[in-house]
Structure formats: C-alpha cells, structure tokens
C-alpha cells in the first residue's frame, strides 16, 4: 500500500488500513533507502511515500512554514524506483501480477485548497478558483497515468474533506468561529471534478479499478452529527494553544484535552485517532455514500 501525504493525517489512516487487512505497516520509502545496501530489496508488502504538507502542486509546500515535504512528482519518482526493484526481484511478469493486486492510496489536495485560502495568499490574484481546481485535477490525472505505467491498477483515491471546517480556517473567522464556506464550496467543486476525471480515466485504462473516498461526506457527518459517532467537541482541538487550541500547533508546551476520543480534531489540521478509525471503517465497509463505485473491501476482491 503506497500513500501520498495530506493534511488529514492519512499516514495514520494508512497504518490503520494496513492493520485491517493483516499487513505490516508500510515503512517510509526514505527509511528503506537509507538502510538499503547491496542486494537488500524493498519489501513486497508495501511502501509509504507519504509526506505531510505535500500538495498536488510542487509549489504548495512553499506556502507553509515547514517547507520540508516531498513533492508529489518526487513521490512518483520513488514509486518508479520501487517498481524497477520489484521487477528485478520477481521478474517482470510476477512483479506486474503482484502490483495488479496491490492497493495504491492517493490522498492529496487539501493543502492545495488550504494554500489558496490561506491568509495572505497571493494565489487569488494570479488564478481564479475554477482554474485552480481544474489544474489540480488535470495534474493529478497525469500522476495517476504515470503510476499506471509503473504497474498500479487498484487505486484508492480520496477526495478532500471540508477544509473550510479545519480549525485553522475557523480560527481565521474571529467573530463566529464558523467554517469558511467558500473554501468548502471549492472543496466540493474539486471533488466533483475528481470523480468525473476518475470515471473518464477508467474508460481510458480498462484494467484500472478504483475506489473514490468521499472524505468530505465522512468528516462532515462527524461535525454535523457528533453524538452519533461518540464525539462531543467538533470546534476545538485536543492539543494546541490559543483560541480553539488552534493558534499554536501541538508543541511540547501545548495544553491537551483530558479525553481525545471525544474530539474530532487532534490539532488545528489533523483528526484524532478515534476519527481516523471511524473513517477507515467507512472506507472499507461503507456504502456508496462514502466510497464509490465500490468500497475498499470490494476493490480488494475485484
């Protein structure tokens, strides 16, 4: 299982997903490279290329303070390296057969939308929201086609969540602390375009199967009906400092809540483990309300 990084802590969710199917947690690619020597090969049970803060656009990382994420294009280069290694290990036919049964989780895009609506962003002066969303989808389509060239056949592709309800966005709305509805609107528009693109790509690549994960609907249901899922707090982070515990990240001196299981958000961006568990269950076992045209269990069996 290979993962691309995103704001919503999908590294954690990929780990939970691996456990759900009885596989070891996919180790980070760079840790494998640093320990790889001579004839040591990459594991055939999975590799993670995930990098927190990455976006569909290579420039997205530059809009955040850390500026340390691995760009998506570089992640795909790493994927090609693993593909070549598997061919060398197993032979071309066996490697392709193995990859055709593997899941490739591609979870990215939230940071791009957040970057557009980030306070002080110059993007609205350079490109319209519609042009930006269209370019995101076109760029991701090219990435998926490249991955297909490297043997990927079963994709778990996540739409982006209600990023306007991230605590970083709520905190910008000083008067009401409500969600940024404009950011949410364009999250929905991106997701609609992404679903359409995947349907078209499936018709181009007959041997491709996919599960589109409706992250927006899943996390919106946590926020709108918290008690249904065992949550109490949907506006404030469990760990952080300042208003909503969202002005300063979860640093060592930050305060944290007494019960993280009743919070949707761990910090100003990421969900708690409780929310992540519910998310993974919906993705694997849920109806087409949450994953389409099939859920992940159905994709595994396809």
From TrEMBL:
InterPro entries, per the entry: GDSL (IPR001087), GDSL_Est/Lipase (IPR051058), SGNH_hydro_sf (IPR036514), SGNH_plant_lipase-like (IPR035669)
Keyword terms, alphabetized: Hydrolase, Lipid degradation, Lipid metabolism
Superkingdom of origin: Eukaryota
- Lipid metabolism listed as a keyword: yes
GO biological process terms on file:
lipid catabolic process
| GO molecular function annotation | hydrolase activity, acting on ester bonds
Family stated for the protein in its record: Belongs to the 'GDSL' lipolytic enzyme family.
Indicate what this protein is called per its UniProt record: GDSL esterase/lipase
């Amino acid at each position: 299982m290979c993962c691309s990084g995103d704001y919503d802590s999908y590294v954690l969710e990929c780990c939970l997903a691996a456990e759900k199917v009885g596989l070891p947690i996919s180790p980070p690619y760079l840790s494998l490279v640093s320990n790889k020597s001579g004839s040591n090969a990459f594991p055939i049970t999975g590799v993670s290329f995930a990098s927190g803060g990455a976006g569909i656009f290579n420039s997205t990382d530059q809009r955040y303070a850390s500026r340390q994420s691995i760009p998506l294009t570089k992640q795909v280069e790493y994927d090609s390296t693993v593909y070549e290694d598997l061919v060398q290990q197993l032979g071309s036919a066996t490697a392709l057969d193995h990859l055709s049964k593997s899941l490739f989780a591609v979870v990215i895009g939230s940071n791009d939308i957040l970057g557009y609506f980030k306070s002080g962003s110059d993007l609205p002066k350079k490109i319209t929201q519609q042009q930006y969303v269209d370019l995101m989808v076109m760029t991701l389509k090219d990435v998926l086609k490249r991955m297909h060239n490297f043997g990927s056949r079963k994709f778990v592709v996540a739409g982006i969540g209600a990023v306007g309800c991230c605590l970083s966005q709520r905190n910008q709305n000083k008067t009401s602390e409500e969600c940024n509805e404009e950011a949410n609107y364009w999250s929905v528009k991106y997701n609609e375009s992404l679903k359409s693109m995947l349907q078209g790509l499936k018709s181009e690549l007959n041997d491709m199967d996919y599960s589109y994960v409706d992250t927006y609907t899943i996390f919106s249901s946590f926020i709108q009906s918290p008690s249904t899922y065992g949550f109490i707090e949907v506006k404030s982070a469990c760990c952080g400092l300042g208003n909503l515990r969202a002005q300063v990240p979860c640093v060592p001196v930050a305060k944290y809540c007494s019960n993280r299981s009743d919070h949707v958000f761990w910090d100003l961006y990421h969900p708690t483990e409780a929310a992540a568990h519910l998310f993974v269950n919906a993705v694997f076992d849920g109806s087409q309300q949450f994953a389409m045209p099939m859920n992940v269990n159905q994709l595994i069996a396809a």
